[in-house]
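F.,

This is the one I mentioned.
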């Protein structure tokens, strides 16, 4: 049987003032200057991604706008289905708080590479462990519906970390050791034998992007 190939792209870099905060599931805007300056990155993605493919984004506009920029750079425009299960971590009451002002939290020390512990659930939000469960269920549903196809998913750093963790059967603590760059490509395969990670942060000719 043919594998299901998932091509996961982290959305483009967001506006500079938003990058200074924990933006989570806030519907923040992309950086307009970067949209112009990074045209070669969109062109590289347009040339690299498979055709045909089913395209998926999340309810947040930054993923849709990133997909549209790839279409404008040379990939034939596609209908975008929306998968809420692949949205970014909901940081609840911490959303909009500057990184430097994140208050000490109660259940565990912050992760070395994230302001919260993997199991920390901020008020009115979700933990990274919650994200891993949510994303895993969404991926399994998607594979069942689109088995054997190419699926391009424009999503978020936290959700892509969770997708890799789901494929590798690792926990949220270890998932937070992954760094996912803006506009990078992560590839997963689902075969009858199970999940396989093909690449993480595939970036032909790209510079590392933070934010």
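My design for it:
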């Amino acid at each position: 049987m043919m594998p299901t190939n998932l091509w996961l792209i982290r959305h483009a870099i967001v506006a500079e003032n938003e990058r200074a905060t924990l933006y989570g599931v806030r519907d923040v805007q992309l950086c307009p200057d970067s949209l112009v300056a990074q045209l070669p990155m969109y062109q590289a993605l347009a040339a690299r991604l498979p055709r045909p493919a089913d395209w998926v984004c999340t309810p947040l506009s930054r993923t849709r706008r990133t997909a549209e920029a790839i279409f404008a750079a040379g990939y034939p425009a596609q209908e975008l289905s929306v998968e809420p299960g692949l949205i970014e971590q909901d940081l609840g009451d911490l959303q909009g708080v500057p990184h430097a002002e994140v208050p000490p939290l109660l259940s565990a020390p912050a992760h070395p590479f994230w302001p919260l512990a993997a199991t920390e659930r901020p008020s009115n939000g979700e933990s990274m462990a919650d994200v891993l469960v949510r994303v895993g269920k969404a991926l399994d549903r998607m594979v069942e519906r689109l088995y054997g196809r190419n699926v391009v998913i424009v999503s978020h750093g936290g959700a892509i970390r969770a997708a890799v963790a789901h494929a590798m059967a690792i926990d949220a603590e270890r998932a937070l050791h992954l760094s996912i760059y803006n506009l990078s490509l992560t590839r997963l395969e689902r075969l009858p034998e199970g999940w396989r990670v093909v690449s993480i942060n595939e970036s032909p000719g790209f510079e590392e992007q933070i934010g």
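Strands lie at 4-10, 54-57, 80-82, 150-155, 185-191, 194-202.

Talk soon.
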